[in-house]
Amino acid sequence: MLPDPGACPSRAKGGGPGCAPARFRRRMPASASLAGAGLLLAFLGALGCAGRAPGLSMAEGDTLISVDYEVFGKVQGVFFRKYTQAEGKKLGLVGWVQNTDQGTVQGQLQGPISKVRHMQEWLETRGSPKSHIDKANFNNEKVILKLDYSDFQIVK
């Protein structure tokens, strides 16, 4: 709950140092206080400094990010997309994965930064049991305020 902006925190009755007497204090509308708090939370969240307001993130205090990826090596014909989807869902991420005409697998991950980092490591080092990963590239990483997808899809 937000503190009452018209209240003096140091003394309940007579005010304290820096507190104006009640007759000189102006009441701020609650809607203005809440709007200011929402803007502050969004700004601090974008900087990675604070928790997010309800409905904006999947995990308390974990900044949401989006990142594109492409994985090179023996990653087609080895159930790589299916395992990628399963790992993403297990971590609570959203996004998509697809094969490319160049023999790679590409996609996008979205979710809390700690979970996305875990998935990036999985894409670089594990993959599906029969895959052989040469390298993984990650591009266009950015902080987001809300998720663009509702689940993790295999795109055909």
From TrEMBL:
Its EC number is 3.6.1.7. It catalyses: an acyl phosphate + H2O = a carboxylate + phosphate + H(+). GO terms for molecular function: acylphosphatase activity. It is an enzyme of class 3 (hydrolase). The active site is at R81, N99. Pfam families: Acylphosphatase. Residues 66-156 form the Acylphosphatase-like domain. Keywords: Hydrolase. Belongs to the acylphosphatase family. This is Acylphosphatase. It comes from Sapajus apella (Brown-capped capuchin). The lineage of its organism: Eukaryota, Metazoa, Chordata, Craniata, Vertebrata.
